[in-house]
Amino acid sequence: MRLTQITHHDLDGYGASTVAARFADVARVVHVPRYSDVGPVFEEEVKRLGRAAEPEMLLMTDLGLEEQTIAGFRKFVAMNRRREAGAKHRLVVLDHHASSLDQLRRQGFEPQPDPDAPGLARADLGDPDATVLIDERVCASRMAHDHRALYATREGDGDLSALIAAVDALDLWRKDSPAFPGGTALDEIFWDNVSNLVPVGHPWHDRFVSDLLLAAAARLAAGASPAELERAAVTIRAALTDALLRDEPEDDPALTTRSRIARALARSETLFRPLKDGTLLSFGLDSGTFQRVSDRIMEAGRAKRVVNVQRMGTLSFRSIDGTALDGARLFRGGGHRDAAGGRLPGGSAFSQADAVAQVEPILNPDKPAGSDSPFAALKNWKG
Fold this sequence. Notes:
Radius of gyration: 22 Å
Mean pLDDT: 91
Number of domains: 3
Structural class: alpha/beta
Low-confidence stretches: 370-383
Distance between the termini: 37 Å
Order of helices and strands: EHEHEHEHEEEHHHHHHEEHEEHEEHH
CATH topology of the largest domain: Rossmann fold
Number of helices: 14
Shape: globular
Strand order of the largest sheet: 2-1-3-4-7-6-5
Number of strands: 13
Strand content: 15-25%
Largest sheet: 7 strands, mixed
């Protein structure tokens, strides 16, 4: 059964996805920074599952449940009810936010205490293939480990105790825990590296971040102090980068880590979506990464203009033909002819598809879709 995980974009959310990957083959991980975006993201998944021929599993971890998300639960149940026996999808929700309990009650789902696990609450959605567990006592990473029987397809390997203990102490702000200083160091390393090297959406992203967390947690387990772990983080990151780029023929180890990775990112078909006029659109890239990757794309002649859309609604255009400013002007922006910025009219975007839906009709209101995709050349580019 194909498994998709939707999880929070923070240390605990990535801890939960790291744990889940030990016990199952996770086909895709969707990281959501804002709880207000969970509802739209979940609804898109429900629509996709409604079209899926084979049964799939959706695992949601560390996501505060708000009204739109719970409304999505009802849509999931209704969709699943229409499917034939043997084709039912499964939903597993593992959360630990007190606000989720409040919202479930407001929406008519009264969480019930689990008689076998004091502190754990279950919400009945009226579908035997849907499980919603809320446990305020522990972090979502620990829940993903303790309730792995709900989604696991294999026995996990490796010791996850140091990682879970550090995340648990940090996420629940247990300052009296011996694991709290290490959790703080782990959190700092996480935020220093989660988005500025291998972006969300690239096939390497979750592997890179999870390997970083596991390697850092192993140092904690071996007795490293927070200061020692901070110094070791650079060495750990360099080793992970070497492993990622081992088969890259054009890799240059003399360059910075970001510049080395940018060469591979510039060939990605998942990070960039071609618009009708050939402009390539990326979503949520770190500004430094976008600068280096867009430069390599345009140097190679794969596109003349590239735009990066951030979740908070800002747009950054880059071009080599003076059209960046033309694009930015359409979005109430300005800047230089080849480097300019603006803002989405909707104020924010929750996914790349949402960004495309907002940008395309303004950037290309009357232009038909081209027959030649810029990715035809990107596929074979070795830049």
